């Protein structure tokens, strides 16, 4: 594909065959995290903190914090396009290390003792369950397994993150069974059942993973406000309130004159997204009623269809009723590019994709991925859209 560089300094590129269509765009749809707000110091740090908290604070293992997951690791997972949901990514990393832990218990020939001792473990409420997990950690420490030992596996040639992610194009590697199979090679019901018990997630009952993540991300005050429940972990800091807006008012004023209010398509919870916009006096730039947030991406049977699944994106376009005019979706990662590719396969031939680079610590690698998936334009952030349009109209 041929791309034309409009600005080396800002890294603004356009796919030349798309230039004419871009000039005819009638509506802009925006992702939220990484497009409207910077999240490198919020969500990605929360993922690291949640993984650390589970192994160091809940299990009580010994080692150096910050080594289990790096920002570079997180970007590698994101670049597969399969880990747009940060709950899923946190769960994947925790279960990977639990699988490593089980492997070490097997090597020490004490796994069956471990499985028998904690066979009756059940999540019935956080306080009692956290006490049980502390006992789990005591068993692990008594067998001289540390968090540092677990962390060393992430760079292992055969069983590390790189080898794990190399399977991304082969099978659905983020399922619990596949994570365990990758690390353990031979997986029985005991291992699967035990890991499900150790880190409850995505069940009909309240679970540990999402609760820990949301409390860490929101802090105790906002957690109480959004969820109407008391905080268990009592984190003072709110990462949500630290998120900074990316677009300037001048840019959004100019774009709104041309395209009308923006629409959001995001896996962020609606209340959290609108909190940030209202806090910064930006809510009037958006059509909230036509926007899709996390709660809107769930089917009647409870199945959540996040990116890169295009089902609800197609529904959004139909609701907006502009199927016959050019639309652009602005996203910040591979999952967004894949969603637009999948939407086109569903018949949305009028949808364009702009990929922004500002959310990635590895912008050169993300740039290459955008080209691989045929992004119609690539830019540093949304503030470059007026520059892009102006240069196409010359």
Can you identify the CATH superfamily of the largest domain? Answer: HAD superfamily/HAD-like
Rg is 22 Å
CATH topology of the largest domain: Rossmann fold
CATH class of the largest domain: Alpha Beta
Q: How much helicity do the residues have? A: 40-55%
Q: What count of structural domains?
A: 2
Rounded mean pLDDT score: 91
Largest sheet: 7 strands, mixed
Query: Order of strands in the sheet with the most strands?
Result: 1-2-7-6-5-3-4
Structural class: alpha/beta
Instruction: Quickly count the helices.
Output: 17
Which percent band covers the strand fraction? 5-15%
Distance linking N and C termini = 22 Å
Order of helices and strands: EEHEHHHHHHHHHHHEHHEHEHEH
The beta-strand count equals 7
Q: Which oligomerization state do the chains in this entry correspond to?
A: single chain
- Detail the poorly predicted runs: none
- The coarse overall form would be elongated
Overall CATH architecture of the largest domain: 3-Layer(aba) Sandwich
List the helices and strands and how they pair.
Layout: E1 3-7, E2 12-15, H1 19-22, E3 27-30, H2 43-58, H3 71-78, H4 86-107, H5 111-117, H6 126-142, H7 147-152, H8 161-165, H9 176-184, H10 189-198, H11 208-227, H12 249-259, E4 263-264, H13 270-279, H14 311-320, E5 327-331, H15 334-345, E6 351-356, H16 363-372, E7 377-379, H17 385-392
Parallel strand pairs: 3-4, 3-5, 5-6, 6-7
Antiparallel strand pairs: 1-2, 2-7
């Amino acid at each position: 594909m041929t791309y034309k560089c409009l600005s080396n300094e800002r890294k603004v590129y356009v796919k030349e065959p798309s230039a004419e269509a871009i000039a005819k765009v009638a509506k802009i749809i925006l992702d939220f995290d990484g497009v409207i707000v910077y999240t490198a110091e919020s969500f990605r740090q929360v993922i690291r903190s949640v993984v650390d908290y589970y192994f160091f604070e809940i299990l009580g293992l010994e080692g150096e914090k910050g080594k289990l997951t790096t920002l570079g690791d997180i970007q590698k997972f994101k670049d597969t396009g399969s880990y747009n949901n940060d709950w899923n990514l946190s769960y994947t990393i925790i279960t990977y290390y639990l699988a490593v832990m089980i492997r070490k218990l097997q090597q020490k020939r004490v796994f069956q003792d471990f499985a028998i001792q904690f066979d009756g473990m059940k999540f019935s409420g956080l306080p009692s369950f956290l006490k049980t997990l502390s006992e789990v950690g005591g068993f692990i420490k008594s067998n001289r397994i540390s968090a540092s030992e677990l962390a060393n596996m992430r760079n292992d040639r055969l069983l590390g993150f790189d080898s794990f992610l190399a399977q991304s194009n082969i099978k659905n590697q983020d399922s619990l069974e596949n994570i365990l199979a990758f690390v353990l090679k031979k997986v029985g019901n005991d291992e699967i059942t035990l890991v499900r018990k150790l880190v409850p997630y995505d069940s009909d009952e309240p679970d540990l993973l999402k609760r820990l993540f949301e409390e860490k991300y929101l802090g105790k005050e906002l957690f109480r406000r959004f969820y109407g429940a008391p905080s268990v972990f009592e984190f003072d800091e709110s990462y949500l309130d630290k998120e900074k807006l990316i677009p300037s008012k001048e840019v959004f004023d100019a774009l709104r004159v041309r395209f009308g209010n923006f629409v959001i398509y995001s896996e962020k919870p609606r209340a959290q997204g609108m909190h940030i916009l209202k806090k910064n006096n930006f809510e009037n730039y958006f059509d909230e009623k036509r926007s899709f947030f996390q709660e809107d991406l769930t089917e009647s049977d409870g199945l959540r269809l996040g990116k890169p699944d295009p089902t609800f994106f197609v529904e959004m376009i139909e609701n907006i009723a502009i199927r016959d005019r050019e639309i652009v979706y602005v996203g910040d990662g591979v999952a967004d590019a894949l969603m637009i590719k999948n939407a086109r396969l569903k018949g949305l031939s009028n949808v364009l994709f702009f990929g922004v680079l500002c959310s990635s610590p590895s912008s050169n690698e993300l740039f290459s991925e955008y080209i691989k998936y045929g992004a119609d334009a690539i830019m540093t952030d949304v503030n470059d859209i007026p520059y892009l349009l102006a240069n196409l109209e010359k």
